[in-house]
Amino acid sequence: MTYQEVLEKARQQLGPYCKGCAVCNGRACGNRMPGPGAKGVGDTAIRNYDKWAEIRVNMDTLCENFVPDTRCELFGRIFRYPIFAGPVGAVRLHYSDLYTDMTYNEVLVRGCAAEGIAAFTGDGSDPDVMRMATQAIAKAGGIGVPTIKPWNLEVIRDKMDLAKASGCFAMAMDVDAAGLPFLKNMEPPAGSKSVEELRQIVEMAGVPFIVKGVMTVRGAMKAKEAGAAAIIVSNHGGRVLDQCPATAEVLPEIAAALKGSGVKVLVDGGIRSGVDVFKALALGADGVLIARPFVTAAYGGGEEGVRLYIQKLAAELTDTMQMCGTRSLAEIGPDSVWMKK
């Protein structure tokens, strides 16, 4: 099977909302929700993609031949690439009933682990989503990151117990999901977290804790104060707030603010190729998350589709590093890219 065949099969398997586009840029789905689209006019998802496309890479082939070292370290573990699959929820609602959240997470975790990277798994109101995701992570030797929604503390504690039993090397919380209606209507209340509440959650985790949904330096400093080991610069794909800046626009200042702090910086939103991964690292990220294209890969080819997509990204990243004269991820910096002044 080729990746093109994966895309073609995915278009037959996906429901009425996602079009299985060759490039997932937010244009075909617009503000379509349910579905993979963004909130409001749908421009945040489009902007995420467009801003990476505006950045150009600086070619430099006046160097010795070399094989790029694409390995990435996160919390003492070495991964083959600085690429992680992002968490996705409600796949049956937004895509089609080929998968449930439970079966999708299982395929995702296996495929990613087989290619030497880790998947961030999704969460849902059905307790079985977290239970089966953490079981999949346990089968993969703890190579996965359970991502817990910002529920109230009682629910978070129950889900963390499942996560701990999986032997996961880290946990995450997508605090940017605070605007979702099923969280707003919970009793006791759920959603947004104060620094003190987040500190309690970080301490409960007992493993490195990642805060997803940081879009400002102020937010990054709050996450650091609460004890987060890493943040993910993310606007939830534009699904929770309209008219946000793109993640590429805010990443450099956030990465600069956290430089030397020990807090890792990851980023998602509109990253669709290995060239985009290179650009994100040049702007200060330690690694990237990609979410929606992994859904297409799974729907079009199951575990094999997931692996083919990772291999595609890896080949693009390796080629870009070779053509830009960067032997390792550490050599990728601001001078590796060109940005319009």
From TrEMBL:
<protein>
    <recommendedName>
        <fullName>L-lactate oxidase</fullName>
    </recommendedName>
</protein>
<feature type="binding site">
    <location>
        <position position="236"/>
    </location>
    <ligand>
        <name>FMN</name>
    </ligand>
</feature>
<dbReference type="InterPro" id="IPR037396">
    <property type="entry name" value="FMN_HAD"/>
</dbReference>
<keyword id="KW-0288">FMN</keyword>
<dbReference type="GO" id="GO:0010181">
    <property type="term" value="F:FMN binding"/>
</dbReference>
<feature type="binding site">
    <location>
        <position position="234"/>
    </location>
    <ligand>
        <name>FMN</name>
    </ligand>
</feature>
<dbReference type="GO" id="GO:0016491">
    <property type="term" value="F:oxidoreductase activity"/>
</dbReference>
<keyword id="KW-0285">Flavoprotein</keyword>
<keyword id="KW-0560">Oxidoreductase</keyword>
<dbReference type="InterPro" id="IPR012133">
    <property type="entry name" value="Alpha-hydoxy_acid_DH_FMN"/>
</dbReference>
<dbReference type="InterPro" id="IPR000262">
    <property type="entry name" value="FMN-dep_DH"/>
</dbReference>
<feature type="binding site">
    <location>
        <position position="239"/>
    </location>
    <ligand>
        <name>glyoxylate</name>
    </ligand>
</feature>
<feature type="binding site">
    <location>
        <position position="212"/>
    </location>
    <ligand>
        <name>FMN</name>
    </ligand>
</feature>
<feature type="binding site">
    <location>
        <begin position="268"/>
        <end position="272"/>
    </location>
    <ligand>
        <name>FMN</name>
    </ligand>
</feature>
<feature type="domain" description="FMN hydroxy acid dehydrogenase">
    <location>
        <begin position="37"/>
        <end position="341"/>
    </location>
</feature>
<dbReference type="InterPro" id="IPR013785">
    <property type="entry name" value="Aldolase_TIM"/>
</dbReference>
<dbReference type="Pfam" id="PF01070">
    <property type="entry name" value="FMN_dh"/>
</dbReference>
<feature type="active site" description="Proton acceptor">
    <location>
        <position position="236"/>
    </location>
</feature>
<comment type="similarity">
    <text>Belongs to the FMN-dependent alpha-hydroxy acid dehydrogenase family.</text>
</comment>
